[in-house]
């Protein structure tokens, strides 16, 4: 089949690579491949750490994708020659004070009901596991929440896709996609993987600004820390080459995604309270991007109900989970392209759960503007 | 005369432009013109705000150069067409608490003995002058401490110098300068204006790291604020286009000039305590560079005592005052090139004050390494 993928973030690239690998003829269109939320993402493969009451379908989806990652990473690395820095030391969920610990235990309740492994640690045990920590109230080890470097994953996927990735902005058309210059690309299916930019097509997707800060330093933790520090959520992610990623804010607005002074101070202050040795770390980069949020925090995976000459498949709305969910999303989209079927674990995330007409066309926008 | 200037920071560029304007044949050599401390500098023309006990010669030098700036700025702008954003609203010296105010008054004592104008303001008057301030203990208006945008000054000077600026690293030679590829440039005088990099030539110059942060936001002060905020020195400099520069740390070490987490948090936290409206400002850029510090905080202006076929003139060690002192330094160097004379105000800053042999050659370095 001939497939057009719109959007070369980690989700679009993973879908494209899976389709190519299974013999399809694919083109990916993006004016700035890997330049959106993928560039800001910390790369936590952390379904347990993200678990929340009322989101068990999303937890199951995340666990299913997390289990694909080790093999996926190995395959990408072998095929592309790019080391994507998969780290399997687990994650430490940390409460700085007792209120923070209380909040952390609400996540543990969800994990217990779902049979997901975790190990609670007292203050002393927490520092034994992670000597860079300050005097924290307590922690929990999540042995199966790993992390990866999303920029390197994008690099590996771009390397495997080669000139199938075209630097151009494309819009959905009944029989394919169209470009700004009026030319068109006809195909058998269109995959929409435009992240937060999907809001112009899919009104349920809203932009949620996130800021991450890249540090470089010696005194850094040996595994991912997800913490609340006197009420402030913060994570500290170690990477190869002495890099540490600190994140992430969540701000709901549609203005340009730029880091604010207040957000930077809050994140860095929380990070150094948690890991005092970061005080002297170099500040290498501050990145702000829009995440694609949805009403129930779950992605939109599957075909739209919009009539058209070719199926329009959505792979959008991954919110905080784009990196984690990329390999599973790729399998779901490939299964649908080939069989018109969606694997069971992804069915709760059908676009139709938000009702009909979940995709707008330029014509709809014009209509709205006139009414 | 044919003159080689090594270093295209604001000092080297100003010297070169002055020499060109007076009919000399000049070349400036720098691998990255305008890319050193000039790039980080906030551009305060603030001799009064920098005044300190025991540094009255430096204060006089600064006042003399500050008085050149309005005409200098007008000339640069007219000749280059670049608006360098000279702002003459003065500076507010601010004490956040009463201890900070106490510290500020030590600067006022120096100004009083030197007959420099200032106007003390109580808490109410301070906020009347500058409504963006938080509840500060008090302030002092320094009506003659202005500011300019150093990147635009460098742009104007680079524009006026055109292809006289050569992107190459040059070293001092007895009869001129030499390049990495072994070629040489013969001339009648060499001006060394290499900022903190002068330490390899002039052992009295030491690198002092400084970090400045560029913000963009609406609620910003109308003039420069120089403050102590619960002991932390910070300045907030408004610029054209909504830009605000926050600075500056001072850290004494020779490692790579990169911003640290601790410095960024301290600066931004102090800035938002002083001006709460900056909380929502965008963080646009964090810049760290080395200032060229000297034992007495004054620059080295004039000829070295090193025997050589051509005079070697130093215009280095400007520490925190490179932008302020650039026009006067240019006049001093030009006067020396033309007449072998140094204007009276600059005589206390002769390189000879640090004793003989203040300039090393590659041969000296080799000797040191062997001894």
From TrEMBL, chains A, B:
UniProt GO MF annotations: glycine oxidase activity
SUPFAM superfamilies on file: FAD-linked reductases, C-terminal domain, FAD/NAD(P)-binding domain
Listed EC numbers: 1.4.3.19
Organism of this sequence: Nocardioides cremeus
Pathway: Cofactor biosynthesis; thiamine diphosphate biosynthesis
One Pfam family of this chain: DAO
Identification of the protein by name: glycine oxidase
TM regions (residue ranges): none
């Amino acid at each position: 089949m001939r497939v057009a993928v719109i959007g070369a973030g980690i989700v679009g690239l993973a879908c494209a690579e899976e389709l190519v690998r299974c013999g399809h003829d694919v083109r990916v269109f993006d004016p700035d491949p890997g330049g959106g939320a993928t560039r800001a993402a910390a790369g936590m493969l952390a379904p347990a750490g993200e678990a929340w009451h009322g989101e068990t379908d999303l937890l199951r989806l995340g666990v299913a994708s997390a289990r694909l990652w080790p093999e996926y990473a190995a395959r990408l690395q072998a095929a592309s020659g790019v080391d994507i820095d998969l780290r399997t030391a687990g994650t430490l969920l940390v409460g700085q004070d007792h209120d923070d610990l209380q909040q952390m235990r609400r996540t543990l309740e969800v994990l217990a009901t779902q049979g997901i492994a975790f190990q609670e640690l007292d203050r002393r045990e927490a520092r034994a596991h992670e000597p860079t920590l300050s005097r924290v109230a307590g922690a929990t080890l999540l042995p199966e929440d790993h992390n990866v470097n999303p920029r390197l994953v994008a690099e590996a996927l771009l390397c495997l896709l080669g000139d199938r990735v075209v630097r151009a902005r494309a819009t959905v058309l009944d029989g394919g996609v169209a470009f700004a210059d009026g030319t068109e690309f006809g195909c058998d299916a269109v995959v929409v993987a435009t992240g937060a930019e999907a809001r112009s097509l899919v009104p349920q997707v809203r932009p949620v600004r996130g800021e991450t800060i890249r540090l470089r330093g010696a005194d850094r933790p040996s595994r991912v820390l997800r913490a609340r520090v006197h009420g402030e959520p913060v994570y500290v992610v170690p990477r190869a080459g002495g890099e540490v990623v600190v994140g992430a804010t969540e701000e709901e607005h549609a203005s340009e995604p730029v880091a604010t002074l207040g957000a930077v101070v809050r994140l860095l202050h929380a990070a150094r309270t948690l890991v005092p040795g970061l005080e002297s770390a170099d500040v290498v980069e501050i990145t702000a991007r829009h995440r694609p949020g949805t009403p129930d925090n779950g992605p939109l995976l599957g075909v739209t109900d919009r009539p058209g000459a070719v199926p329009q498949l959505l792979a959008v709305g991954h919110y905080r989970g784009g990196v984690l969910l990329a390999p599973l999303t790729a399998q779901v989209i490939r299964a649908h392209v080939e069989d018109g079927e969606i694997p069971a674990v992804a069915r709760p995330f059908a676009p139709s759960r938000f009702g009909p007409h979940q995709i707008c066309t330029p014509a709809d926008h014009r209509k709205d503007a006139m009414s």
